[in-house]
Design goal:
241 residues, alpha/beta, eight-stranded parallel barrel, globular
Length: 241
Amino acid sequence: MQIWPAIDLLGGKCVRLQQGDYQRETVFSDDPVRMAERWKQAGTNYLHLVDLDGAKDGSQVNAQVIERIVAQTGLVCQVGGGVRDQATIQRLLGMGVHRVIVGTRAQRQPEWFAEMAEAYPGHLVLGIDARDGYVATHGWLETSKVSAVDLARQISELTKTVAAIVYTDIAKDGMLSGPNFQQLQQMQQATTIPVVCSGGVTTLADIDQLMTINTHAAIVGRAIYEGQLDLVEVIRRCPQR
């Protein structure tokens, strides 16, 4: 199982939000590049980068920070937040980002997302952020009437070139309370696209259970910043390749 340490960017700083609430922000570092180097030294091959400014309003104010992280670490990076057109996809891939996550526009225009996935096979990730089982968009500020599982099924029928689904249960995100294993398994059963667990991963027992249910990858965030999880131990438990 792949392990993706998360670096959430807001105003050029490394932060974490609780349940996606921009009013419940904790700043962990003024230097996200140094934080990325820290996780590289711990043994990760991967980084999950989220542009929270972009997620909220579509801006790309953190683009320079993202480019520096990619260039200086040499890690496999995936980036999400505010990716709503082909030009942004091309720009991120052009700066060396390996996978680009699309959420809001994929939910609103699945056919467009499938077209982009075909144009960049293996490089697009479907971001599904769910609140009570329904897709949330625009930095989790809005909740749609689209079922998360239904969206996954629809994309699976439209294209076979999506690299993964990053599935986030908003109620679990940043709360250090464990993933929503039930909904995660429902998502895994609904699609052949590899599913990445995001939100709530807190303990080595969580890691073990995710491995037991054959989860493709796990994103770890607040738990490694606050010391509940030691990334070195996680990667020892779950060797990367």
